[in-house]
Structures are given as C-alpha cells and as structure tokens.
Amino acid sequence: MDLYGNSVLLVIDVQNDFCPGGRLAVKDGDRVVPFINEIMDKFGKVVATQDWHPEDHLSFASNHPGKEVMEIETIDGIEQVLWPDHCIQGTEGANFYPGLNIENISLILRKGMDKRIDSYSAFFENDKKTSTGLDGYLRNLHIDTVYLTGLATDYCVYYTAIDAVKLGYRTNLFIKGSRGVNFPEGNVERAVNDMKERGVKIIE
C-alpha cells in the first residue's frame, strides 16, 4: 500500500560490513533492519544503495603505505577519511545484511566503484559533480519527496540528505531507521543538527 504518494524510500548501505561483525561496523547497525522492513510496503518505490568498492580504492588506509585507519587525508583537493577495507565488490561484506527484505526494492544503486574517488551520497560522488544517475531516475518517475533510512547517519545518509535538499526534494529522515559511525566524536549530533538547519525533516 503506497501511503506516501510521489515519494521514494532510500535505504542507504545496509550491508554486512557496516553491521556488527563487519569490517567497518556501525554500532547497532543491524537494528535498523526490522524498522526498514516494516515501512517498505508503504512506499511505491524503494531504492537501496550499496558501497561497491574495488580492492584498490583510494578510501582504504591499506592503499596508503604508512597511514593508519581513520586518518584524514586531502586527496585531489577532497578531504578523505582513510577507512578499513570494506564493501569490496563481490564479497560477503558488500552483500545486504541478512533479513533485509530485498523483494520490495525497485532499484539497487551501487556507488564508490571508481577507485579514484569515494562516494558517500546516493546522488553524487565526493567531487560533488559526478552524478550517480539517481536524480534522473527519480525525476523520470515524478518523485518529489525522499525518505531516508540506513547507514551511516553522519556519512552516507547525511550527504545523501544534503544533496537531496540541494536538488529540490522534500527530504525526511526516519531517525529510528538510521545509525551513525560518530567519527569524530559528536559527529552524529552535528550531522543531525545540520540536516535540520538545511530543511531536512527528522521523523522521530
């Protein structure tokens, strides 16, 4: 039953590597799954994203000799957190977390496939210019409102929300359906406050 009209549910990166036991685990990341499954059938369209990195991706600390995980570097003018290797194409870590209802997903959008640039947002890569194609897909469906869930609140969810607002979508976040990395400390609170200030509706 589509209760949300011309809207889409964006399920961001609910993958094994971002859940407990994964290589870049978000605390309680798996707990978003029951909530997401519960609300999915209220939307006519559901889009799920996957981080889908090559092994030599620039965001991996292992590809920067002498650097440590969670160091922050500036690469080609873009600030980059150096993450543990995660969501490598075709690996178990890149798969959706078990129990996520993928039958209701209309489109799976894979991002971060270019080894030279990371991609937090579902709309643009981190150069803020290279489109993933999601905006065109939604506009062709006459969708004007997005609802966000997934991982992580202060990174991929946050950047997706900010880009959605910039592109003119009415943007909402189901806070119960999202969890954050919280790096650096306090980052989740900062991200939520910034989303509010930019016009994202936080649904408690």
Number of beta-strand segments: 8
Number of helices: 4
For the CA atoms, what is the radius of gyration?
16 Å
Q: What's the CATH H-level superfamily name?
A: Isochorismatase-like
Secondary-structure-based class equals: alpha/beta
Q: How many structural domains are formed by the residues?
A: 1
Strand content: 15-25%
Poorly predicted regions:
none
As a percent range, the share of helical residues equals 10-25%
Distance between the termini: 22 Å
Q: What gross morphology would you assign?
A: globular
Order of helices and strands: EHEEEEHEHEHE
Mean of residue pLDDT values: 96
Main beta sheet? 6 strands, parallel
Instruction: State the CATH class.
Output: Alpha Beta
CATH architecture verdict = 3-Layer(aba) Sandwich
CATH topology: Rossmann fold
Strand order of the largest sheet: 5-2-1-6-7-8
